[in-house]
């Protein structure tokens, strides 16, 4: 693969950023051309230039169309972040009118946060900023060590406080609180008994969201709670989603920790029991995190106020 140890921005055709984003999104040259607003040969030519630049095919044809190469998969998230930052840069103004602005905001959050805030935020935007664009990027794994750097290129992240976020340049504001509860199948003996003991939690098998491979450090909140309880969980199912947890608890003898707001939403329809933790778990505080470079941006100030407002009555 061709390497580019030093590439000067002035020597790059930045139009290729948009082409790269749409080609990786669509995995189809014709559809990418339509989204960019160019002809199919022009999109093919852009793909050729990108292939030469990266020394990689990026898109590889198979029986069902095109698939992304490993490098293209790596580039996919990066180009989304860079394009969002560029769009934000060129739409920055000294004032902000939410009623007419077409500013795009990018937020990183877990599916649990979407369950709690999503509908409220959507309704508020529809009412007060109908032309604003919102890009929600979902957390796919435990927050990585480069999360603090990632926030420089997005408008914000909603997450509980962890030590790696306490770095110069990052600011935060509390949005809402919650608490941990245990969820089990409604027919589980512990559910019928109506409570769990510490001994139950130590012997039962677990479903754990964002649980890392053995030997890796993690910022996964549920894993942290079990560690504080002195429990080394027998994790039988690992998922990259809070919303997926109940699906691997129902109909089994497994147990999981879940945020109460989410547990209350899913317990009845899915046939789950919600029980208090026998130990004293830490409270959950969800915060909005942003980089201080956006402190004086009027649009960002409005976004922070909007998120705080829709969270106030939770």
UniProtKB/TrEMBL annotation:
It comes from Streptomyces sulfonofaciens. It comes from the Bacteria. Keywords: DNA-binding, Transcription, Transcription regulation. GO terms for molecular function: DNA binding; DNA-binding transcription factor activity. This is LysR family transcriptional regulator. Pfam families: HTH_1 (PF00126), LysR_substrate (PF03466). Residues 12-69 form the HTH lysR-type domain. The lineage of its organism: Bacteria, Bacillati, Actinomycetota, Actinomycetes, Kitasatosporales. Belongs to the LysR transcriptional regulatory family. Transmembrane segments: none annotated.
């Amino acid at each position: 693969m061709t390497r580019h140890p030093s590439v000067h921005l002035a020597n790059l055709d930045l139009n290729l950023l948009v082409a790269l984003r749409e080609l990786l999104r669509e995995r189809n040259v014709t559809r990418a051309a339509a989204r960019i607003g160019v002809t199919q040969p022009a999109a093919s030519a852009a793909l050729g230039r990108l292939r030469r630049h990266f020394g990689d095919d990026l898109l590889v044809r198979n029986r069902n169309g095109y698939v992304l190469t490993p490098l293209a998969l790596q580039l996919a998230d990066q180009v989304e972040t860079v394009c969002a930052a560029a769009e934000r840069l060129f739409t920055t103004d000294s004032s902000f009118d939410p009623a007419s602005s077409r500013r795009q905001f990018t937020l990183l959050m877990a599916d649990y946060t979407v369950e709690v805030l999503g509908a409220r935020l959507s309704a508020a935007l529809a009412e007060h900023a109908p032309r604003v664009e919102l890009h929600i990027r979902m957390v796919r794994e435990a927050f990585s060590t480069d999360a603090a750097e990632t926030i420089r290129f997005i408008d914000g992240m909603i997450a509980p406080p962890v030590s790696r976020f306490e770095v110069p340049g990052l600011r935060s504001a509390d949005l809402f609180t919650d608490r941990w509860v245990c969820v089990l199948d409604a027919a589980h003996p512990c559910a019928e008994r109506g409570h769990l003991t510490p001994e139950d939690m130590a012997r039962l098998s677990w479903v754990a969201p964002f649980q890392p491979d053995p030997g890796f450090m993690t910022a996964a909140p549920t894993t942290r709670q079990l560690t504080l309880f002195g429990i080394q969980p027998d994790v039988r199912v690992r998922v990259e989603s809070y919303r997926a947890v109940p699906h691997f608890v129902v109909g089994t003898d497994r147990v999981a920790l879940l945020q109460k707001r989410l547990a209350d939403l899913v317990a009845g329809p899915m046939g789950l029991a919600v029980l208090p933790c026998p130990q004293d778990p830490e409270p959950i505080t969800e915060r909005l995190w942003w980089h201080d470079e956006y402190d004086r941006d009027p649009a960002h100030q409005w976004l922070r106020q909007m998120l705080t407002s829709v969270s106030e009555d939770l």
